[in-house]
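Crash report, auto-generated. Payload:
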Amino acid sequence: MSPAETVGLAPGHAGSAHPEDHRARAPHGWGISKRIQLHSGDTLSVGQGSLYPALHRLEHQGWIRAEWKASDLGRDAKVYTLTREGRKQLERELKSWERLSSAVQLLIERA
Amino acid sequence: MRFPRILGHRLRSLFRPAHADAELQRELDLHLDQLTQELIATGLSERDAALAARREFGSMERTKDECRDMRRVSLVDDLLKDLGYAIRLLRRSPGFTLTASSRSLSASAPTPPFSASSTHFFFGRCRSTIPSGSFRCSSATSPASRSRCRWRPAISSIGRRPRRASSR
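Recovered output after restart:
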């Protein structure tokens, strides 16, 4: 059974397993929660109610932009896209995460 | 580019809170509907799926409150509500309001003129150059600042130490 089938996603869904699809289509809240679940191999699951405060915080900080658009859910949905500043912030956060995770890895190996 | 976007977002949340709340409700309803559909696909009845979706989602009101908190407008909202409550209470007892406001005004009204005049007449603008423990203003360089320091001799006499008896 493919990961997409395990979370009950139809092909072309915002939470589809194809990375190209994800880049082409801006995700909505539901799609984001499914993507996190899908791409982490069902290991990570964002609490249903805790995703939206996080999205609103990012929007408030200017890292993401939200707009209502026709979606694959058959009706308009609020979709989120990274802003230019958000992309820069993402790169900074990724570098920080890589430093931290490699430090933890080293610690585990040498301890 | 980020600052205008943040400002616009905050102003929209502040001045059109009903619109922002309606959008939030619409977004959460959409999520809940999708969750319900997913549970129906697993074999649950429509009613059971809706109940299970609600349980899985958790408190809708708490999520909405957290989203409002993220918009950082709850502080202003709370302040306005507190002000409204205070005004309603004060209107209920006009005697107390009149006494309290007249006393607070009489206590605070002389403060600004006194602060302004004391700063101007006693210290002038060279206040920041006054060394600690002394009233002397020795570093006034421009003619304008020197003229403002005319009070220096009078002030320095205030801070002068009394002569010792042994100096005789």
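Post-recovery validation: The longest strand of chain A covers residues 64-70.
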